[in-house]
Amino acid sequence: MSLEKRQFFRFSTCVPVKFFNAFAPGQGYSGMVTNISAGGCQIFVKGECQSLNYVVLNMHLPNGVLLDLINARIMYENKESDGTHLGVMFMNMDIKKLSVLVDFLSDLEAQEKEKSPKPQSEQTTP
User: Fold this and answer.
1) Which CATH number fits domain 11-101: 3.40.50.1000, 2.30.40.10, 3.90.1640.10, 2.40.10.220?
2) Taking the C-alpha atoms of 84, 71, 19 and 105 in order, what is their torsion angle to the nearest 10 degrees?
């Protein structure tokens, strides 16, 4: 069993994303961000996706905010029968976009805390 060591905590999510090759922006792809952190995300694309190295992402966050023109590097590509999972690392994100992303991640963290059961010591008895 291997223990993953990540710089940032990842949150499960379902965020639509469009992206294109950073060096040949003519062909674009649509997919779904399945998990996200301040450093990157995992994208699922149905069907075939050409091998890419660097992409530009546009994500519509559930709070209505568009995070656009995010430069990213494809770290891995796992092809499956129904589509492709891409591991993406964000690159050189400007402070405004990073701030928007961190706010979104804080909202996801708060939602997860609300869903998780409270420890016995915090539960009130009637």
Assistant:
1) 2.40.10.220
2) 80
Tens of pLDDT, residue by residue over 17-28, are 999 999 887 779
Closest CA to 100 of 59, 57, 55: 59
3-state secondary structure of 37: coil
Q: How many CA atoms lie within 13 A of 48 on its CB side?
A: 2
For 41-74, b/e burial (b = at least 16 CB within 10 A) is: bbbbbeeebeebeebbbbbebeeeeebeebebeb
Q: Which of 63, 17, 7 is nearest to 39 (CA)?
A: 7
In the chain, domain spans? 11-101
The pTM assigned to this predicted structure is: 0.80
pLDDT in tens, 84-118: 999 999 999 999 999 999 998 888 888 878 877 76
Q: Are 33 and 17 in contact (CB under 8 A)?
A: yes
Q: Nearest CA to 67 among 58, 75, 76?
A: 58
